[in-house]
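subagent[fold] <- orchestrator: predict structure for attached chain, return tokens only, no commentary.
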Amino acid sequence: MKVLYVASEALPFAASGGLADVAGSLPAALRKRKVACRVVMPLYGSIGSEMRSSMRFITNIMVPVSWRMQYCGIFEANANGVVYYFIDNEYYFKREGLYGHYDDGERFAFFSRAVLEILPYIDFRPDIIHCNDWQSALVPLYYTAFYAQREGYTGIKTVFTIHNIQYQGIYGKEILGDVFGLGEEHMSLIEFGGDLNLMKAGIECANKVTTVSKTYAHEILDPWFSHGLHPILQERSYKLSGILNGIDVDNYNPETDKNIPFNYSAADFSGKAKCKAALQESFGLPVREDVPVMAIISRLVSHKGFDLVKRIMWDQLAAADMQLIVLGSGDWEYEEYFRALAGAFPDKVGLRLGFVPDLARKIYAGSDLFLMPSKSEPCGLSQMVALRYGSLPIVRETGGLKDTITDSGDGMGNGFTFKSYDAYDMLDAIRRALGAFYDKDLFRTLVERAMKCDNSWGKSAKEYIALYESIQ
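subagent[fold] -> orchestrator:
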């Protein structure tokens, strides 16, 4: 089986979010299971010279973008045993940032056409083209409209994965022909709510639609979560499924991680206690083994649950013997709130605004508890990393958080959960987690269990293979 994995970003080349982690890990996991999987992505200007030096130029072609023909260079590189193809066009991709440009619709229409146009030139004829999020959602539509009956293209199946339904690629109907190169006969496949909706086109035209956790696949059928697309998803629910993302367990491994000051394992916790002391010292907090350290690593925005945190954390810190460490950036009101907390409780709160990957590893390793109270969370990777490093997650039961974390109220879970999006339900979960910390035997058992949870890509890869086989 041959799979061409289409992504607008992928590690180690370019990243802005979770899609890059997936595109950098899942193809390698599929290859280990004898699936020939290769990746295609844009050649962004931000990709450094060292990485570019390892790329091989294949050829250049011209790609139709409506009435225009645009240059497309094709490059190839290998990373983690996976072949990556790069679509080169400096007009579209040599810019600051991956997204957020006025002509993103045209940029990714070009990319989507290029994915299909390069197939005769790369010596790789896929059985399945697996597309991701709105940036490549036009690939299934373009295949249906222009390529399905073309010699060399017949019989290819398409899969479309929704990583976050909030971002759909919505544009005015006036650019249907001039930018996307589509006719009125295609309008029913892409029009939604009076606009052109690229994600809707992917859902309509792909053979299978997936999302990144089983719970999220159910949630997006509900108007509360769907950002308007529930009618289409309900109509096409027969081809919708959820497959939980994984993490790279070799990369996130406290036994071998060179980014943390001391290594440790579920069998030998001594290094974790040292990581905790080093973390407290680095944030200027009292070095105390007997106080629970709760961590937050996140974008500081409302849908991550920080309106709940803002409502109760001040009183909780005043009342409890605990420490809080926060790493992240986002909305001004939450950044200011955490600045105020750190000022009011200098012996209890450590704050670093921004995102520093090496520091994040140290926080995972040195914390006892990890707070993730999201309003919605399609999959979430942070809670899986926290488990791997023995920091017990406190999460709301939504999306992938619900699928990966079970409550330890009976002593049998791997974290602490709450259901309602309510500050005092969250507070109850925090208090139960703090109570568990002081029962040393129970807490050690929970941490051992957390560290042994299997959130590797192997499980997810098997489910994707079964999905691919079901449509061949």
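orchestrator: received. Logging for downstream: The CA atoms of residues 120 and 343 lie 61 Å apart. DSSP finds 19 helices and 18 strands in the chain.
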